[in-house]
Write a structure and sequence with these properties.
- By secondary structure, the chain is mainly α.
- The protein has one domain.
- Helices cover about 50% and strands about 0% of the residues.
- The chain has 6 helices and no strands.
- The longest helix is centred in the C-terminal third of the chain and has 20 residues.
- The relative contact order is 0.19.
- Bound molecules: zinc ion.
Amino acid sequence: MIQGMTDRCDCGAAAGPLGRCADYYYAILAEEQADPGMYRWHNPVVCCYLLQHPAEGHQNHFDVQFRWLQLLLDQGVEAVVRVAAYQVSRNRHGSRRGYDMTPLEKYAPLPPGEPATGFAASFSALPVVGGSFVFDGVEAYGRRVEAVAAATVERLSART
Ligand SMILES: [Zn+2]
């Protein structure tokens, strides 16, 4: 470990019982593969994680990810699933128009700035019971993901 034995994540969050945020993130990605209900929050989970840990993402995608989270908070997860499915369908049918930003255009662009810390909700604080993130149902899990999304948008919107 390059930074010694610190248990702080890049995002500033303290490690939880599973470890750092990355340990939570990969555990979620594994569990959601087997649970279609949980998988509905896949896109927001990825966007939240990469925006809170930008060293693991790609600069070119952060703005779109920031807008996906605003779509989630504005219209709910069903809208995210619907817009994502529409994007996949466009690709499948060989559209040459590329990524359609229309559903995301009305949302605020990501303000420029340094990587942020101090998010009000973090991956390493997500509860895990019996090895599961959806121990109390996917709706409750979804509300927790939305809280992380809200904290991500709020923190990055205030970045200067
Ligand atoms: Zn973190």
